[in-house]
Amino acid sequence: MNWHILLTSLVVFSTIFSCQAAGDEKQFSSPGIGYIEVRSDLEGARVYFDTLYMGYVLNGSLIIPVDTTVKPSWKNVRMEYSGYLPYAGPYIQTEAGKTIAYKIDLCNTSYYQTGMVRFTSEPAGTEFLLNGKSMGTTPDSGVLVAYTVPRGLYIVNAQRPGDQTITDEIYVDENAETKYSVEMVLSPLGELIIDSKPEGGEIFIDNRLTGLTPLYMKDVPAGEHRILIRLEGYQDWAGNVSVSGGSSSSVEAVFVSSGKQYEPEIVDEPDEPMEPKQ
């Protein structure tokens, strides 16, 4: 008997229920233990490593601890759900202390002409979209594997808060693995929302007249900016705002009356012409 395989199975079974109850929180840690997170929109979908039952999807995922110090005895990850065709794809091992995410979309017709995409990002937490459909975000390992992707050419977007969005094209072939990696960089531009009470104040950004409140601005250079807002009858409002790349910042000015009394302008009405005497 292979005692390494038996030990791995015992470790998995002894921790799987605590991980399932905890959802995304990893409650089990030990030297050499890594994690496989199986994601699916089908609540209750059953997950197997080959024929070894690992648990079911709860709240969108199932986290499975695995012993990375020994070579896994299984070859495939399999998912089943009533009314859908079961799917089996190649198992990809994780690293100790790290999580690899598998996204599996079951269907009830056929997996003919489908492939898989291995997304890798630096840093982790990057969301990938294929033709506008989210595949999910990369976990701490930076690796997300999407199974059952129909064959074809895709527009792929990689996005992360504060970073520039990367747009590219990939071709997914049937019964093949497509690899796509990105290194995210900070965005040099952000958004700025400026408002005031009352509205209608003139906005000066870095001594440049920009518009009237309320104002929404895109593509604002990241960094510190000086804001000055003026409204007749009120004291000037001034302050600084820090704009971060890829995110939105806001400023709301509350005016204080200047105390000046403005007399309404009286316009003399012209004398009515006198009617000529008859």
By secondary-structure content and strand pairing, the structural class works out as mainly beta
Radius of gyration using CA atoms only = 30 Å
Q: Give the integer mean of the pLDDT values.
A: 87
Number of domains: 2
Oligomer type = single chain
User: Quick one: how many beta strands?
Assistant: 21
Account of the 3D structure:
The protein is mostly beta strands and 278 residues long. The chain has two domains: 3-183, Sandwich (Immunoglobulin-like), CATH 2.60.40; 189-254, Immunoglobulin-like (Sandwich), CATH 2.60.40.1120. The chain has one helix and 21 strands. The strands form five sheets. The protein has a six-stranded mixed β-sheet. A four-stranded antiparallel β-sheet has the order 3-2-5-6. The chain has a four-stranded antiparallel β-sheet with strand order 10-9-12-13, with no helix packed on it. Strand 12 and strand 13 form a beta hairpin. The radius of gyration is 30 Å and the shape is elongated.
Features:
single chain; 278 residues; mainly beta; Immunoglobulin-like; 6-stranded mixed β-sheet; 4-stranded antiparallel β-sheet
Structure summarized in a few sentences:
The protein is mainly beta and 278 residues long. 7% of the residues lie in helices and 47% in strands.
Topology:
Layout: H1 3-22, E1 33-39, E2 46-49, E3 52-56, E4 61-67, E5 76-80, E6 87-90, E7 99-103, E8 114-122, E9 127-130, E10 133-137, E11 143-150, E12 152-159, E13 166-172, E14 177-183, E15 189-197, E16 202-205, E17 208-212, E18 215-221, E19 223-230, E20 237-243, E21 248-254
